[in-house]
Amino acid sequence: METCILTPVKGTSSPGIQKALDKTGTVNGDLLQYSHVHFLKGDTGQYLLNSRLFLNDNTKMTFEEGVTWKLMDNAPNFGAQVPIIGQKGSSITGLEVDGLVYDGNYANQGNTQNDHGVGYGNLFGFSNITNSVFRNVEVNRNEGDGWRLNGGSNLVFDHCSGAEGGHDFIHLFNCSGATIENCSFEIRANNAVRVRSSSNVLIDSCQFHDFTNNAWAPPVQLENILDGTKCMHIEMKNCLVQDTYGPGVWGIASVPLGGAAGVYIHHNTFRNCGMMPAANTIPGVGGMVFDGFTDVLIENNIFDGCSGNAVSFDNYIGKGGVKGCKATVRKNSIVNTRKAFYPGAVSGYAIANVLGKDYYTVEASENTFLNNESGDYYGAINVSSTVEGPEEEPAERPAFLFISCSSEQVTAIRNSLPEKQIFRRK
Fold first, then answer.
1. Distance (Å, whole) CA 58 – CA 30
2. What tens digit of pLDDT does each residue of 136-158 get?
3. Has residue 400 got a pLDDT over 50?
4. How far apart are CA 35 and CA 32, in angstroms?
5. For residue 77, what are the CA distances in angstroms to 69, 92, 183, 302?
6. Hey, is 383 helix, strand or coil?
7. Residue 237 φ then ψ, to 5°
8. What's the pLDDT tens digit per position in 287-328?
9. DSSP-assigned states of every residue in 193-234
10. Of 201, 194, 207, 212, which Cα lies nearest the Cα of 147?
11. Which of 215, 212, 292, 280 shows the shortest CA–CA distance to 250?
């Protein structure tokens, strides 16, 4: 299998790239001239995109460090939801993209409506995409979505990153089987990851934040508002979400009970989420907000300094209206929760069931609390075996107690006080 090597020269642009892509991958199962295109840095390091690109099945693209694809100033208006990089057929499989750095150049696009998406300027757009990997792809200053995928399975996004996204970085619609791992995104308008009517999605070891003070949307949005679709089996773990206007995670569903179910969020840190300005008059913010999803398990997370309610079952900027949902909140550390800047009726709690018992049955246990402005609980919450928070040790109490005793006495103490740590000094 041959590799096509491209080196940029002055004026290298989309037609030259497309010429190589036309000869790469497979068509109807038949291998073309190349299986792989490798982009070298050359003297300029930059390839200018001035028209759309189309990929075949089983196309592999790799990029030397220092290569950038940049959208030209005042690029053509390709149309709403028309991606810059798309596919030739009705489906596509076997893509591998490794090392692409893309500059969407949103500040210099005069032919589209604005620099916050509304469907213009999406980078990747694929339908019915399968068995594909995007690794070390960096999407910066983009006008639209980074990836907008409509139908697909067995997808991997590994060590992808970006700043100043114009809409969603990764938008999955009607997909099943996606892993998003070790990614870092700075949102500017909408979500870092949007899981829309999609199932079997893992978000692992990612960092999402908003240092632009522009984005109202949550970094992670789980959504199912289309009848006849499912959004199930979503797991998020080992992530850091911080400094956001909206909640760190928002789950919104309006389909019949059970159509949006099975969310497991664990071992994440949510810090300073929900800092929506009062002028926006949106009270339902916090660390995470769920409305319409059932069988939600939230455990072993840290919530620190969130505004609104740290864990909330409430409306955010949409209303689910699904009754009979269930959620469990356990073994979380929730500290320093404060009221939202536009607080509404219920704000500043660690765990709040604002929607009420008709909509959510919430079980809470073994959570720890400290310094939550309005309290630890609000609304109908079944609390059991809860540790109310770390007690401050009296100043005069020593860290260790030294005693002299025999080996038999040490054994007896250990048996009678199994929760204590017993050290033996020789």
1. 10
2. 999 999 999 999 999 999 999 99
3. no
4. 7
5. 18, 24, 29, 44
6. strand
7. -150, 155
8. 999 999 999 999 999 999 999 999 999 999 989 999 999 999
9. EEEES-EEEEEES-EEE--SS---S-SEEEEE-STT--EEEE
10. 194
11. 292
